[in-house]
Write a structure and sequence with these properties.
Elements lengths: L6 H23 L6 E15 L9 H24 L3 E6 L2 E7 L7 H21 L3 E19 L5 E6 L1 H12 L8 E3 L6 E3 L6 H17 L26 E12 L2 H8 L4 H24 L4 E7 L2 E8 L2 H26 L5 E6 L11 E7 L4 E6 L1 H12 L6 E5 H6 L2 H4 L11 E5 H9 L9 H7 L15
Parallel strand pairs: 11-14
Antiparallel strand pairs: 1-3, 1-4, 2-3, 4-5, 6-7, 8-10, 8-11, 8-12, 9-10, 12-13, 14-15
Helix pairs in contact: 2-3, 2-5, 8-12
Length: 474
């Protein structure tokens, strides 16, 4: 697909390519230097909804089915966006996000790209998914954007876009979550418009399918496991779509509160102020990655989703998983906020945390694979914890220094940490909690256990007679 209408447009695209490449080189070679550019174009989002029961199955083939479908969906989305002159920015499980540079907001490049994606989903992914398929939706918007890149804790790349045009399509998808798969949704105009399905010509369809097959052939067939299930990018032990990492995971999303408003205001100010905002955000990205690397728990950092920092706590077994749900699931939120507040006291965070109960035969609840592209790598994760933490973030109204916890995880908390939970008047699937309350519970030592001789005997399984005290003279 060639959407360049003049030599100047082609040259502008070439400069965008060079700038992105320079960002990636700078971010990789000089971690503390500023790596950001500004561009105008389309932000494209698409969301593939699949049944979740395969992820929780005790059968390995079933557990891998959703992840492979999401991997195919992500690969094809990127190929379509790249063919339109853009690049993949995010792969957040079922949600993908790309950018196509184009100064003309009336251009049809974004619409054509998403219609092509919908056609591929209808013809290929839906048939492969069978009963697991639910629906696929997409949205796009146009506007100026600041791009910032930094390496994640496992040396994967996060290219974050700071733009109102990057926020509205994502919110639109979740707002239209109840709609059936009927086409592509556009928020280029003030009121979302349902676009009619278009017919993709046979040549374009063949090119897309050929590219998708070529990508599948590059995926490694064998992976060697290390004690750390998700090693750094470039390791020969990297998990793949065919052999994903499988573990009991706890998902945590930390969202910068009201950061999007600061981004909108920055575009109304000077270039120097926008550059300062980009530098601050990149410093934040680096600090968040350092937290993940330095923490005593095994933390897997997933790609940034806009201004949302996403991690998985990788548990080695069911016992560690259940133990962390008693207290650690909230303690790490307080530790993260303390770590970031020390360097960035003006930044406020809100949180969404999810894990969930396990069935008796369930051997994992989280799958992770690494997707390798020409100039970047990204971790792709599937499973109920990731899905629930995402839904909690986008559907619940969370105040700064507070969070929401999946209902089953609230019930799994020990009595001590139940005190950090707020009253749930709406009977939501999520329960609010206050980070300050968690911090206080960490700092206040637990009351010591006092064992009387009777309690010691009872703990050993030896029953003792009850002694009654009688008043003198009775």
């Amino acid at each position: 697909m060639n959407h360049y209408r003049s030599l100047s447009e082609w040259q502008n695209r070439s400069r965008f390519d060079q700038a992105i490449e320079q960002i990636q080189k700078t971010a990789g070679l000089v971690p503390d230097s500023l790596a950001s550019i500004e561009a105008i174009g389309f932000h494209l989002y698409s969301k593939l909804d699949l049944a979740v029961e395969y992820t929780d199955s005790a059968i390995k083939e079933d557990r891998s089915k959703n992840l492979k479908l999401l991997g195919d969906f992500t690969n094809v989305f990127r190929e379509i966006v790249v063919a339109s002159g853009g690049e993949l920015l995010e792969a957040q499980g079922s949600v993908v996000h790309g950018f196509i540079p184009d100064g003309n907001q009336d251009s049809e490049v974004a619409q054509e790209a998403l219609e092509t994606l919908m056609e591929y989903v209808r013809r290929k992914i839906q048939s492969r998914a069978g009963d697991a398929y639910r629906k696929c939706t997409a949205a796009f918007d146009h506007g100026p954007t600041i791009f910032v890149e930094a390496l994640d804790a496992q040396k994967d790349s996060s290219l974050v876009s700071l733009s109102r045009a990057a926020n509205r399509p994502a919110k639109l998808l979740w707002g239209n979550d109840e709609l059936e798969d009927k086409g592509v949704y556009s928020c280029v105009v003030p009121i979302p418009v349902l676009l009619k399905e278009s017919v993709v010509d046979s040549t374009m369809r063949a090119n897309i399918e050929t590219r998708a097959l070529e990508i599948e052939k590059t995926v490694a067939e064998v992976v060697c496991r290390a004690p750390q299930t998700v090693p750094d990018s470039g390791s020969p032990m990297s998990p793949t779509l065919n052999e994903p990492a499988e573990f009991y995971g706890i998902a945590i999303r930390a969202d910068i509160h009201d950061f999007s408003q600061g981004v909108e205001q920055a575009f109304l100010k000077s270039e120097a102020e926008r550059a300062a905002l980009a530098q601050q955000f990149r410093d934040l990205m680096i600090a968040c990655s350092e937290f993940a690397q330095e923490h005593k728990l095994n933390i897997v950092q997933l790609p940034w989703a806009g201004d949302s920092f996403n991690i998985l706590i990788e548990c080695q077994d069911r016992d560690e998983y259940q133990k962390l749900r008693e207290a650690g699931i909230l303690q790490i939120v307080s530790e993260f906020e303390d770590y970031l507040t020390e360097e960035f006291p003006q930044v406020e965070w809100s949180f969404s945390v999810a894990a969930g109960d396990l069935e008796n035969a369930q051997v994992c609840n989280t799958l992770v694979a690494r997707l390798e592209f020409t100039n970047q790598t990204k971790l792709l994760s599937a499973g109920l914890p990731v899905q629930r933490s995402l839904i909690g973030q986008v559907t619940e109204d969370v105040d700064p220094s507070e969070g929401v916890l999946w209902k089953e995880d609230k019930n799994a908390l020990c009595p001590r940490y139940q005190r950090a939970i707020k009253v749930n008047p709406t009977n939501s699937n999520y329960h609010g909690f206050e980070v300050d309350k968690v911090r206080q519970l960490i700092q206040i030592p637990e009351a010591p256990h006092v064992y009387t001789p009777q309690k010691k005997l009872a703990a050993a399984g030896i029953s003792t007679p009850t002694v009654r005290n009688h008043a003198i003279g009775s």
